[in-house]
């Protein structure tokens, strides 16, 4: 364990640690030139004072969605005499319609902030502020799907465009979940006139270049060898092409080397870092899942751990579960906590979302196994998933009586 005096000594590993942060926006975003250009094109009408289309940006965690949007926002701020006003809103913090409206007020009308206004008052204040000089308000909603009353928020923001004679609101929504709009009320959905942009995962070669660029800025010279960079890039590509994941591994590997007073980061440090970061990432992913997706994942975990109604299929050390069995256990779990199970149609969407998050994999069985059916495999240790959901969401024993 390092003492305080050790921590105050100049690092032999890191040169500029902040460039390794997932919140850092580099001057050049490698392999995202086309995506940045597409965001600029979508935003151009709003910047010219026209009522533009809303933009929804999708992609897995760590594909550069937020960084690219923030990059364009910085470009906009440097354009002189522009009427567009921007608000970036992290929906993990501002997760309701009232909080989002209040954040917009805080950004642009500070004299009216924190005065105890209700949502209607905030709406009217924002609308009149936009209309007074024909400005366009661009609202960036990062992790938009987390907003609890999203229908109300979407309807409120888009309603401004109908209620005012000049100016308008443009929404840029950022989400890991491509299908989140399908949960919107048709009333809200009908008000959206949007462009969609999907960010693909990074390849190993791209992750290598991104890591190399950050290492050149963030680490002392010759501290990280190419072998370590290639290893981290390959692991991260296999885990879904997540640049944020690769940077977390790199940073943790540097910290482990520093704790041992090494002069270089070794592959062993990187391998140890992977195990640590994987646990953190799983916990973070689970925390962002909607409640019913958590219950589906919990059902998969307990069936993988203990078996179920049907005979499990195994392939070496891998265990596959029948989709129908998982759905039945999901229904049992939801009823045990006095909730209404969703339909099989929604259940299939939940499986798709869990697969997109890299938590499970599924495929059609083909002929010979109870006809055509979907097989599901958990990609993380069942105990780890089960414990994370219990401790984080449900309490340690809320499902105990229905596990077996």
Plain-language structure description:
- The chain has helices at residues 4-8, 33-47, 65-77, 97-108, 119-131, 150-163, 186-189, 204-218, 226-238, 243-259, 267-288, 291-306, 323-336, 344-356, 382-394, and strands at 54-59, 84-90, 136-142, 168-175, 194-199, 313-315, 318-322, 360-364, 374-378.
- The chain is of the alpha/beta class and 404 residues long.
- It has three domains: 33-199, Rossmann fold, CATH 3.40.50.300; 202-287, Helicase, Ruva Protein, domain 3, CATH 1.10.8; 289-402, Arc Repressor Mutant, subunit A, CATH 1.10.10.
- The longest helix has 22 residues, at 267-288.
Helix content range: 40-55%
User: Count the helices. How many?
Assistant: 15
| Spatial gap, N to C terminus | 42 Å
Morphology: globular
Overall average residue pLDDT:
87
Strand content bin: 5-15%
How many strands, what sense, and barrel or not for the largest sheet?
Answer: 5 strands, parallel
Q: What integer value in Å does the Rg equal?
A: 24 Å
Major beta sheet, strand line-up: 2-3-4-1-5
Q: How many distinct folded domains? A: 3
The CATH topology of the largest domain corresponds to Rossmann fold
Oligomeric nature of the chains:
single chain
CATH classification, class level of the largest domain: Alpha Beta
DSSP strand tally: 9
Secondary-structure class: alpha/beta
């Amino acid at each position: 364990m390092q003492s305080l005096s050790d921590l105050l000594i100049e690092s032999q590993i890191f040169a500029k640690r902040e460039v390794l942060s997932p919140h850092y926006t580099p001057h050049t975003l490698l392999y995202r030139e086309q995506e940045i250009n597409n965001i600029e094109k979508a935003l151009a009408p709003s910047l010219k004072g026209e009522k533009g289309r809303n933009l929804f940006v999708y992609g897995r965690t760590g594909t550069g969605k937020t960084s690219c949007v923030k990059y364009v926002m910085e470009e906009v701020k440097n354009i002189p005499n522009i009427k567009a006003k921007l608000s970036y809103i992290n929906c993990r913090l501002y997760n309701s319609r009232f909080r989002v409206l209040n954040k917009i007020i805080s950004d642009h009308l500070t004299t009216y902030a924190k005065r105890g206004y209700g949502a209607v008052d905030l709406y009217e204040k924002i609308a009149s502020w936009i209309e007074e000089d024909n400005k366009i308000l661009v609202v960036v909603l990062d992790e938009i799907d987390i907003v609890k009353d999203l229908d109300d928020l979407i309807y409120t923001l888009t309603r401004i465009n109908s209620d005012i004679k000049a100016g308008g609101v443009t929404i840029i929504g950022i989400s890991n979940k491509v299908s989140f709009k399908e949960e919107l009320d048709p009333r809200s959905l009908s008000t959206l006139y949007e462009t969609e942009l999907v960010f693909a995962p990074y390849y190993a070669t791209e992750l290598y270049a991104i890591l190399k660029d950050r290492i050149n800025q963030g680490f002392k010279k010759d501290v990280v060898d190419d072998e370590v960079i290639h290893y981290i890039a390959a692991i991260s590509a296999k885990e879904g092409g997540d640049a944020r994941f690769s940077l977390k591994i790199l940073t943790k590997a540097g910290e482990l080397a520093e704790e041992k007073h090494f002069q270089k980061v070794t592959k062993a440090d990187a391998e140890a870092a992977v195990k640590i970061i994987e646990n953190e990432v799983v916990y973070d992913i689970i925390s962002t899942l909607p409640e019913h997706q958590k219950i589906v994942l919990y059902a998969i975990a307990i069936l993988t751990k203990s078996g179920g109604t049907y005979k499990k299929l195994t392939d070496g050390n891998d265990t596959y579960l029948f989709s129908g069995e998982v759905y039945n256990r999901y229904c049992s779990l939801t009823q045990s906590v006095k909730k209404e199970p969703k339909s099989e149609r929604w259940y299939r969407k939940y499986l798709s979302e869990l697969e997109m998050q890299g938590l499970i994999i599924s495929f059609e069985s083909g002929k010979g196994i109870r006809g055509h059916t979907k097989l599901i495999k958990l990609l993380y240790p069942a105990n780890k998933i089960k414990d994370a959901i219990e401790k984080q969401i449900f309490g340690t024993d809320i499902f105990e009586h229905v596990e077996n």
